[in-house]
């Protein structure tokens, strides 16, 4: 990852069960200007249990309420036999391809594909054995924090560092789908950086592109957003995913925000230096004869900026001109007797 904001298009379940759709989504992600495509590597059996018990029925006001967890993940599942081809297509397109593993077998599988990065999903931040196993691979770690309290984050970060892996990015994330914009709470990115000494970013589930752009202005180094070719494809994540036009607009806005932030420096650009011509300086405001006294009437601070700096005005008042001066002459110290 370079110094520019790393923009991730999250494929998630937005493949509609067709590898052709997944491939075209990767190619579309490249067209948007994204830097990476992210997958999710699990099966329904590696992420939950095939159970009808109440604990395994989704509730709580989500867009998936009353579904069995097992059935949700059956629907969202990205077949593992697609991964190698999707990694290949992404590389062909010039995109990084990586994934969120949900158990050790997924990690082992992704290692065979030489994944360059690992992402820990929000709901897995408490799975410390999984985090330890992933971090031991020595790859950069990106972790969403959607359901995490301070102790959860600290334990996860400490676990990663204990194995000597220090490339950690914490993503502010609101685990609502879609997430209300007033719950984005982006100020926590600065708190993450302060409390844990890590890079920070955003995994965004709000509608639109406002929150990612604001996040960049607040120091985000990573932006992750769900991406879909067309919401008409449907699926568990379609309603809060951006289509190609929207994602392209987001990437453009993020890049513009990057440019606007700039760097901390008092050095002026060439355009800014040229603009100094319009600043104030001291000019002869009316004809002055040799020996005549300099006053606020015959020498004034005006635009443009080619004359003497205005800070000298008080020191030259009362001095005598040493030659005849014409209105419009740029004033200089050489024009008065010392």
CATH architecture assignment name of the largest domain: Alpha-Beta Barrel
**Which consecutive residue ranges, at least 5 long each, have pLDDT under 50?**
none
Shape: elongated
Q: How many E strands?
A: 10
CATH fold node name of the largest domain: TIM Barrel
Summarize the structure.
The protein is of the alpha/beta class. It is built from twelve helices and ten strands.
Layout of helices and strands, plus pairs?
Elements: E1 6-10, H1 19-32, E2 36-41, H2 44-47, H3 69-76, H4 80-93, E3 96-101, H5 104-112, E4 118-120, H6 128-135, E5 141-144, H7 150-162, E6 168-173, H8 188-196, E7 199-204, H9 210-217, E8 222-226, H10 244-261, H11 270-275, E9 281-284, E10 299-302, H12 313-316
Parallel strand pairs: 1-2, 1-8, 2-3, 4-5, 5-6, 6-7, 7-8
Antiparallel strand pairs: 9-10
């Amino acid at each position: 990852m370079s110094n520019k904001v790393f923009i991730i298009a999250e494929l998630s379940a937005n493949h509609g069960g067709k590898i052709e759709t997944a491939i075209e989504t990767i190619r579309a992600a490249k067209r948007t200007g994204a830097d990476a495509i992210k997958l999710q590597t699990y099966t329904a059996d590696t992420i939950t249990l095939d159970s009808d018990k109440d604990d395994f029925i989704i509730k709580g006001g989500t867009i998936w309420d009353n579904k069995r967890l097992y059935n949700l993940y059956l629907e969202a599942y990205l077949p593992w036999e697609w991964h190698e081809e999707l990694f290949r297509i992404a590389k062909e397109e010039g995109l990084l391809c990586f994934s969120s593993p949900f158990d050790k077998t997924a990690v082992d599988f992704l290692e065979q594909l030489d994944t360059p990065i690992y992402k820990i999903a929000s709901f897995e931040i408490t799975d410390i054995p999984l985090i330890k196993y992933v971090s031991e691979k020595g790859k950069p770690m990106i972790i969403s924090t959607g359901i995490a309290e301070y102790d959860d984050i600290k334990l996860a970060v400490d676990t990663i560092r204990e194995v000597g892996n220090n490339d950690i990015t914490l993503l502010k994330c609101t685990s609502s789908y879609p997430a209300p914009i007033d719950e984005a709470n982006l100020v926590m990115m600065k708190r993450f950086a302060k409390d844990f000494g890590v890079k920070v970013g955003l995994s965004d589930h709000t509608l639109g592109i406002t929150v990612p752009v604001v996040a960049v202005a607040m120091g985000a180094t990573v932006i992750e957003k769900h991406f879909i070719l067309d919401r008409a494809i449907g699926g568990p994540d379609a309603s809060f995913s951006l289509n190609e036009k929207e994602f392209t607009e987001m990437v453009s806005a993020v890049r513009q925000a990057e440019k606007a932030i700039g760097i901390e420096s008092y050095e002026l650009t060439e355009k800014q230096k040229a603009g100094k011509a319009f600043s104030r300086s001291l000019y002869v405001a009316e004809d002055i004869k040799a020996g005549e006294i300099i006053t606020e009437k015959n020498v004034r601070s005006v635009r443009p900026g080619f004359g003497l700096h205005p800070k000298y005005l008080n020191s030259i008042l009362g001095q005598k001109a040493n030659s005849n001066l014409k209105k419009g002459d740029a004033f200089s110290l050489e024009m008065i007797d010392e």
